[in-house]
Amino acid sequence: MPQHEYFNRKLCISVDAEGYGRRDDRAQQDMQETLLRILAAAAGRAHLDRATWTRQGVGDEELSLIPLGPSEPLVVDDLPRQLDAELSRVNCGRSPDNRIRLRVAMNVGVAYPADNGFAGQGVVVVSRLLNSTPVRRALKVARTANLALIVSAGLFDDVVCQGHTTLGPGDFRRVDVSEKEYQGHAWLRVPGVDVSSLDLSAAADSVTEATDPAGTGSAAAEATDRADGAAAPPPAAAVTNQFHGEVDARYATFGFSGGARG
User: Fold this and answer.
1) CB neighbour class for 256 (10 Å; exposed up to 12, middle 13-18, buried from 19)
2) Which run of H or E residues covers position 219?
């Protein structure tokens, strides 16, 4: 086959579910089934035809190649919105450590099926974005969020900045990405959360891990509230009363003695 026939540009989407490895076998099976159902439902509601996607699944991950064209604004704008809605429905009533939460990365570049999966720099970049520190930290500290989205600079410039979506640049936050051989910047969005207020520094990792190693309990939620701009609750005031002699408890009110003998 002539070399140029391999060349093909695609919109690349990579999705990964949080906390897959810590679940038991049956829970992993449930997550895989639920993830595919969520992706199919969200794509349908966003008027996207998944039958036209070339998909590669591995457990809790899916990497998809989508033809370029009119669907690009729907993928960047409507698909994350519908994913967020579907995740809210699925997670309703689930315990915090059983919720399904996603990292989602998007990029446009050269990508095509190869002998053992997909090849092309478009696939490499979207994979680096998905596993990058900023999007991982965003999902980690924004504990109320269902998903965190990271979009490559080129896709952001072409689709968001040129007014092809209902989103604007202010709905995203520019982040630097350094993942393996990839160095560049990308744009981060967390639906339902002010992404500019999130603490994405290394200090956020140490605080969350020290207070709640599993990242699922109330300590993580409280840290997220502070990262989202909420003030930390004031410490409770401590009152100590010292009494000498016998205390007549009949006259005690709310822990304060109304009369003492001695």
Assistant:
1) exposed
2) helix 218-227
Distance CA 44, CA 105 (A): 19
Cβ within 8 Å of residue 178, ≥6 positions away = 132, 133
What pTM, to 2 d.p., does this model score? Answer: 0.77
Q: Is the pLDDT of residue 219 over 50?
A: no
User: What tokens appear for 52 in the block?
Assistant: 């036209």
pLDDT in tens, 139-173: 999 999 999 999 999 999 999 999 999 999 999 99
Query: If you count them, how many residues does the chain have?
Result: 262
Tokens of residue 205, six digits: 């990792």
User: pLDDT tens across 181-218, in order?
Assistant: 889 999 999 999 999 999 998 876 765 544 444 444 43
Using DSSP, state whether 3 is helix, strand or coil. Answer: helix
What HEC string does 95-161 produce? CHHHCCCEEEEEEEEECEEECCEEECHHHHHHHHHHCCHHHHHHHHHCCCCCEEEEEEHHHHHHHHC
- Mean pLDDT over 173-183 rounds to 92
DSSP per residue, 154-199: HHIIIIITTT-SS--GGGSEEEEEEETTEEEEEEEE-TTS-GGGS-
CA distance 109 to 107: 7
Residue 131 burial by CB count (10 A; 0-12/13-18/19+): exposed, middle or buried?
middle
pLDDT band for position 2 (50/70/90)? low
What is the enclosing helix (H) or strand (E) of 32?
helix 25-45
Distance from C-alpha of 179 to C-alpha of 103, rounded to nearest angstrom: 16
Cβ(146)–Cβ(102) under 8 Å? yes
CA-wise closest residue to 35 among 91, 112, 93, 95: 91
